[in-house]
Design goal:
- The protein contains six helices and no strands.
- The protein is an all-alpha fold and about 170 residues long.
- It is elongated and about 90 Å long.
């Protein structure tokens, strides 16, 4: 029988897998072991995953926040537009106030989350090119953020940060 083990170093990964499976299937544990141990090894250098994983998570949460923020802003401006074009009645005024309170909750929930993890909320957004504070035009000081939504957002961002939640828009 011809000894092909000298050729094993030149096998591609798919070729090595196929030969490994064949050896294991026929019960040839020595051949499977040889295929595994002759596999080329690589050494990698990379940034600490405690940093890179957290930064990626923070960026993802910031993007989720921006998507939610723009959705809430769009709803609020839709109600403002309806009122401006003459659909001003008690129901639309109440809906506008509700949408405005929801919109403000997004800013509050994000600020609470960032404070909790020890970061400045506008700086986090700026780091990912998501400066949203200038988009708070038309803010009405007589309307408070929706407290329940603020709390839900704050807790949801914390759950994401801790890997306990899937992203929801």
């Amino acid at each position: 029988m011809i000894d092909l083990t000298k050729q094993y170093a030149s096998l591609t990964a798919p070729e090595r897998i196929a030969l490994f499976i064949e050896a294991r299937a026929r019960g040839d544990t020595e051949e499977a072991k040889t295929l595994a141990t002759t596999c080329p090894h690589s050494n990698y250098r990379m940034a600490d995953t405690a940093f890179t994983d957290r930064m990626l998570m923070l960026q993802t949460i910031a993007y989720v926040h921006a998507a939610r923020f723009f959705q809430a802003r769009g709803c609020m401006f839709t109600m403002r537009a309806l009122i401006a074009i003459g659909s001003s009645n008690k129901e639309n005024a109440a809906l506008y106030q509700l949408r405005h309170a929801e919109f403000l909750a997004y800013g509050e929930g994000w600020a609470r989350f960032c404070h909790e993890i020890g970061l400045d909320s506008p700086k986090v957004l700026a780091a990912f090119h998501l400066e949203l504070d200038d988009l708070l035009d038309g803010y009405r000081p007589d309307i408070d953020p929706d407290a329940d939504l603020t709390e839900w957002l704050y807790l949801d961002y914390l759950k994401m940060w801790n890997g306990e939640s899937v992203f929801q828009l």
